[in-house]
Write a structure and sequence with these properties.
By secondary structure, the chain is an alpha/beta fold. The protein folds into two domains: 162 residues, HUPs (Rossmann fold, 3-Layer(aba) Sandwich); 123 residues, Riboflavin kinase-like (Elongation Factor Tu (Ef-tu), domain 3), CATH 2.40.30. The protein is 29% helix and 30% strand. It is elongated and about 70 Å long. Belongs to the ribF family.
């Protein structure tokens, strides 16, 4: 998959671009609803003998349009989004920088520049996709703006248990630690990648060494607590338990939660290595313990729960 980062106005040359079938949307999470849109584009492209494309945006429009929003945490930051799209057999990814200039474009100007101008011959989007200044363009107006240059397909909402699958729903579930439901909506476990950094090394002294993982500040993490996780490292998958929290037994100085992972049956040095953590199930809330012995007893109980969870 080739990736192109574009700003307005872009400098792509129309006659140097292949004719493509493109899915378009923000696609945070690339959940089952998004996957239907993207897979429709991939299949349509194959049927037409064209390349498939995905057009997406960064950062989230709210960062640009809402004065009180400084940054947004993403279910799938750009890097993770690229990796997932690669696995979905997308040929080309266009990442359009969302800024005030882009937000001010009329719907017609947006279509002319970023759809016609990228040699898109068929556009596929969800029923609620909007574009152009104040979102005035939508799936009811896009045929008019296309003016015969490209055709379109609208993908209706994807429903699970009577409710629309949405990024908003997934964010709500993550706040509640409902990971199994998140997995069901995404079609895969939520995952986060990060580099192992040195922590206080206290885990080694109590028999539960942990990898302290520094993650991108743009990553949306689930609520604070203890979780059953899987860790992907150098094409191997390990089971383990993760603590995401403020370590209240030992300090009250932390402003952001720390991610620590105890990898079962693994004792090698991982400092500086990149790990991917898959979140599988919430085990318990974070607690403040009266001492180390009480903490160790609870961690041992956590380990038993996690091992039982994965064995089941």
């Amino acid at each position: 998959m080739r990736t192109f980062e574009l700003t307005y106005p872009h400098s792509m040359v129309l006659n140097e671009l292949p004719e493509t079938v493109s899915a378009i949307g923000f696609f945070d999470g690339i959940h089952k609803g998004h996957q239907k849109v993207i897979q429709t584009a991939v299949n349509e492209a194959k049927d037409r003998g064209m390349e498939s494309a995905v057009i997406t945006f960064h950062p989230h429009p709210s960062v640009v349009l809402k004065k009180d929003v400084q940054h947004v945490k993403y279910i799938t930051p750009i890097r993770e989004k690229q990796e997932i799209l690669q696995k979905l057999d997308v040929d080309r990814l266009y990442i359009i920088q969302f800024n005030k200039e882009l937000a001010a474009l009329s719907p017609q100007a947006f279509v002319d520049h970023f759809l016609k101008g990228l040699h898109i011959k068929h556009v596929i989007a969800g029923f609620d996709f909007s574009y152009g200044h104040k979102g005035k363009g939508n799936m009811q107006t896009i045929e008019e703006h296309a003016n015969g240059v490209f055709s379109t397909t609208q993908v209706d909402k994807v429903v699970l248990d009577g409710e629309k699958i949405s990024s908003t729903k997934i964010r709500s579930l993550l706040k509640e630690g409902r990971l199994e439901e998140v997995t069901n909506l995404l079609g895969r476990p939520l995952s986060v990648s990060g580099t192992v950094v040195k922590g206080d090394q206290r885990g080694r002294t109590i028999g539960y060494p942990t990898a302290n993982i520094s993650v991108n500040e743009e990553v949306l993490l689930p609520k604070v607590g203890v979780y059953a996780v899987k860790v992907l490292y150098k094409h191997e998958v390990y089971e383990g338990m993760a603590s995401l929290g403020f370590k209240p037994t030992f300090t009250d100085q932390l402003e952001e939660p720390v991610l620590e992972v105890n990898i079962f049956d693994y004792n090698n040095d991982l400092y500086g290595e990149e790990l991917r953590v898959e979140w599988h199930s919430f085990i318990r809330e974070e607690k403040k313990f009266t001492g180390v012995e009480a903490l160790v007893n609870e961690i041992a109980a956590d380990e038993n729960k996690v091992r039982r969870y994965f064995s089941a």
